[in-house]
Amino acid sequence: MPYFGSRSSSNLENVNPRLVEVCNDAIKTMDFSVLCGHRNEEDQNKAFDEHKSTLRFPESNHNKKPSDAVDLAPYPVDWNDKRRFYNLASIMFIAANHIGVKLRWGGDWDRDASRKDQSFNDLPHFEYKGEAPEEAKHNQMILANAYNPGDSYA
Ligand SMILES: [Zn+2]
């Protein structure tokens, strides 16, 4: 069973414990790295300057302490293999339902299951949006299915 390396573990240190629970559940299914949890002012403005974020400090969910956002990448990291990022998103939403958490993914900011209305794609980015009541879990299962690239994805 995959588990987090020391760098991923330390990146989870200043992350909302509920979001950490989701990550701990998801990694049982797919190996991935935690690239980033909390971002301080310097790190956030650097991410903005490098167009990795559209927000300056302290606007990002990464800037809260503990952080309400994590950036994840399937391990080993291959930025060109988007299919694995979609697969991870699907697994994260299934894990979120196990734990009872509401998530938002940077590949579908408005949570409408469509990736065609995105002005900014942030495929590694996941945000904690509070606890998920039972009725919200049905919607999240629809999202998990929509994000799943399936076998026919080219
Ligand atoms: Zn992020």
- List the bound ligands: zinc ion
Helix vs. strand class: alpha+beta
For the record, what CATH class applies? Alpha Beta
Radius of gyration: 15 Å
Beta strands, count? 4
Helix share bin: 25-40%
Number of helices: 5
Helix-strand blueprint:
Layout: H1 6-11, H2 17-26, E1 32-36, H3 41-49, E2 69-74, H4 82-99, E3 101-105, E4 125-131, H5 134-147
Helix pairs in contact: 2-4, 4-5
Bound molecules: zinc ion.
Verbal overview:
It is a single chain. This protein is of the alpha+beta class and 154 residues long. The protein has one domain (6-146): Muramoyl-pentapeptide Carboxypeptidase, domain 2 (2-Layer Sandwich). Helix content is 37%, strand content 15%. It has helices at 6-11, 17-26, 41-49, 82-99, 134-147, and strands at 32-36, 69-74, 101-105, 125-131. The chain has a 4-stranded antiparallel β-sheet. Bound molecules: zinc ion (ZN). Zinc ion (ZN) is lined by residues 62, 69, 71, 122, 125.
In short:
By secondary structure, the chain is an alpha+beta fold. 37% of the residues lie in helices and 15% in strands. The chain is built from 5 helices and 4 strands.
